[in-house]
Amino acid sequence: MCTALLATGCAVPSAHVPAEHHDAAVKALPSGDASTARPDVWYEIFVRSWYDTNGDGIGDLNGVTAKLDYLQSLGVSGIWLMPINPSPSYHGYDITDYYGINPQYGTMDDFRHLLDAAHKRGIKVMIDLVINHTSDQHPWFKAARDPASPYHDWYSWAGPHTDLSAASAVGGQAWRIAGSAHYLGDFTGAMPDLNYDTPAVRQEMLKLGQFWLAQGVDGFRLDAAQHIYCDFKAQDGDPVVLKKNLAWWSQFRRGMQAVRPDVYIVGEVTQDSPDKLAPWFGPLSTVFDFPLASQLIDSARNERAGDLATLLARTDAAYRKASGRSGVDAPFLSNHDQDRVMSQLDGNPQHMRMAAAMLLTLPGQPFVYYGEELGMRGRKPDPDVREPMRWDRVPGVAGEATWKASTSHDGVAVSVESQQADPDSLLRHYTTLIHWRSQVSALRDGAIHPLELDNPHIAAWQLDNASSHVLVVHNLSGQAQDVPLGDTRFRAVLLHSKSGITLQRGHLQMPAYATAILQ
């Protein structure tokens, strides 16, 4: 490890600084005003499952507003709302009116009130933009079934030589039947794909995005971003298809920046390597880091860093080359399409804590899925990973959504009420980690230098920006570890997740399942 650290230019002898005396070190760190710095952490909310203010069992927009104080205390900088538009489905990813609000969630006035209340607390609001496809109940598609309609070309229809057995890019069939005609529906027959080779479709989507920015939203999460043009399994990896996708999203981003230069646009691009994700930087602000999510969970589950350092180095190199700067990643652990993290980790609370610690000490803008900070469990099918948020010890009290019965059977400890009262809870752990990002600017946008260590249980990386330089060290194991640092410039324990961490004569003593940030 000494060799790795010396390679980064560290050459100052270390001093003995117990973790218990880290407060003075915090004050000495030139990382900006902790009271005003933004941690740049986003929080994903399924409105239906969040908080119910009118007693119908379904979460609503006023419920999001009612819980903004909770989100502010957690420390998040922004919220991502899963689809809020009218839709015939419970999840909302098949939209019938892009300019409206799902009446089960409230009204446009309710949404504007949420935006105002969030912005007053310094919390940004991002909405899900689902424009790869519409609902088959959308007026556009209903009209499009008539070949004479101007909306016919808004969708893709099979011709006489179309291979109707072609596999969709997401699995299953691509072509669906409507009467005597076949239309493209990558995901399901209820979600017909829009045809972006039709100029009117592009213009409508630019108009749509600008409409929501005018309401006050701060950005968009782009559903199925790669499937605007990647429709068939045979197109996977096709550079022509990629080029067409990137050209459209570049046009979209320019259209949004014309009315809001700082708009934040994150894409759902489900690729398995940083090299495949890197081209999307520029057309978009960022993309979700699916490869890193898998590795973080694997490292936490196995209590070994494994390939984490190598992946972090590859990711940083690819993203810096594409964007020209650090801190552009959008790391996460899981989302509404995946088994919840606690379930992936087989209910192990220590592994959950370490997964969270790694996520929230990486540069970029991390995303947290609602309930993750409580350790909520859930395995697919999809409704079971989107169950109601647990607010109170006793299920079913006023405000808690009841649209779906729980399948996870989490106990009373998995609730906001219980964990706010417990100083050692997972919720308190998340809150601490998120607030660290306000104190240390390098955690948000530092250039990362992952360390390859001899000890397989230690994950570590150096982060550097203009105002702060820190070393992040995680002991992923259930045993105390002696981490030799050698002669380094990191001489003090700045922040720590557990007591008992000490740095003496070039050796960092780490208790089990602990995180330390050194300066």
UniProtKB/TrEMBL annotation:
Origin species: Rhodanobacter glycinis
MF GO annotations: alpha-amylase activity; cation binding
From which residue to which does the signal peptide run?
Answer: none
Extract one GO BP annotation from the record: oligosaccharide catabolic process
Q: Does the keyword Protein biosynthesis apply?
A: no
Source species, domain of life = Bacteria
EC numbers for this chain: 3.2.1.1
Taking every annotated instance into account, which residue ranges of this chain make up the domain Glycosyl hydrolase family 13 catalytic? 44-437
Name of this chain's protein = Alpha-amylase
Which InterPro entries did the record assign?
Alpha_amylase, GH, GH13_cat_dom, Glyco_hydro_b, O16G_dom_2, SusG-like_C
Q: Keywords in alphabetical order, please.
A: Carbohydrate metabolism, Glycosidase, Hydrolase
Known catalytic reactions: Endohydrolysis of (1->4)-alpha-D-glucosidic linkages in polysaccharides containing three or more (1->4)-alpha-linked D-glucose units
The family database entries (PANTHER family) matched by this protein are listed as: ALPHA-AMYLASE FAMILY MEMBER, NEUTRAL AND BASIC AMINO ACID TRANSPORT PROTEIN RBAT
- Cytoplasm listed as a keyword: no
The record's similarity note reads: Belongs to the glycosyl hydrolase 13 family.
